[in-house]
Amino acid sequence: MGKTTTKYISKIQVLMDDCTQLSELYAVNYATKSKMFQQTGPLVEAHDKRTLQIQNEHDNVAGKYEPVIDRDPEIQKLNKQLDELKNSIAKISEKVRQLRQSLNTKSEALRKELLAFNTYIGKKKSSWKSKKSVPMAEKFIEEGVKFYKELP
User: Fold this and answer.
1) Is the pTM for the entire model greater than 0.85?
2) How far apart are CA 35 and CA 93, in angstroms?
3) Residues 89, 33: contact at Cβ < 8 Å?
4) How far apart are CA 81 and CA 87, in angstroms?
5) For residue 1, what pLDDT is reported?
6) Which secondary structure element, helix H or strand E, spans residue 18, and what is its range?
7) Which segments in the chain show pLDDT lower than 70?
8) Distance, CA of 130 to CA of 127 (rounded, Å)
9) Domains in the chain: boundaries
10) Cα(43)–Cα(151) distance, integer angstroms
C-alpha cells in the first residue's frame, strides 16, 4: 500500500479506537445514570408515605402539619438522601452529555475520513488496475462504514 492509503487507514483506525472507547464509557455512564434514577423511586415513596402519615396525625389541617414535616428527622434524612442523589444524577448527566458530544464529534470525523478515503480509492482505482491494495482498501472502507453505522 502507498503512503496516502496507509495514512488514511492509520487515521481511520485511530478514530475507530477513539469511538470504541467513548462508546464504552458512554454505555457505562448511561447505565449508572439509569440506576440512579431507579433509586429515587423508593426514596420518594418513603418520603410521601411519611408525609401522609404526619398529615393524618394532624387531621390534615393546613398549617398544623407543615412545621412538623419540616422538623421530622425521618423526612430530613430522606430529603438529604434525595438531594445527594439529585446532585449525583446531575453530575453523571453532564458527564453523559459530554461523552455523547465527544462521541458525535469523533464519529463525524470518522464519517468524513471514510468518505475522503472512499473518494481517493475511487479516483485511483482505474490507474491501479490489478493492485491487491484496491480490494483491501475497499473492504476496509466497508468495515469502517459498518462500524460507523453501529455506533450509538
Assistant:
1) no
2) 12
3) yes
4) 10
5) 63
6) helix 3-57
7) 1, 60, 62, 129-130
8) 9
9) 3-150
10) 35
Which positions ≥6 away from 140 have C-beta within 8 Å? 9, 12
Long-range CB pairs of 35-40 (<8 Å, 24+ gap) are: 36/85, 36/88, 36/89, 36/92, 37/89, 39/85, 40/82, 40/85, 40/86, 40/89
pLDDT of residue 135: 82
Any idea which residue has 453523559 for its cell? 96
Q: What is the DSSP string of 35-98?
A: HHHHHHHHHHHHHHHHHHHHHHHTTT-TTTHHHHHHH-HHHHHHHHHHHHHHHHHHHHHHHHHH
**Closest by Cα among 90, 65, 64 to 75:** 65
CB 72 within 8 A of CB 65: no
Residue owning grid cell 487507514: 9
C-alpha cell at 130: 490489478
Cβ(149)–Cβ(21) below 8 Å? no
Could you read off the pLDDT of 74-86 as tens digits, one per residue? 999 999 999 999 9
Spatial separation of the C-alpha atoms in residues 78 and 109, rounded to whole Å: 46
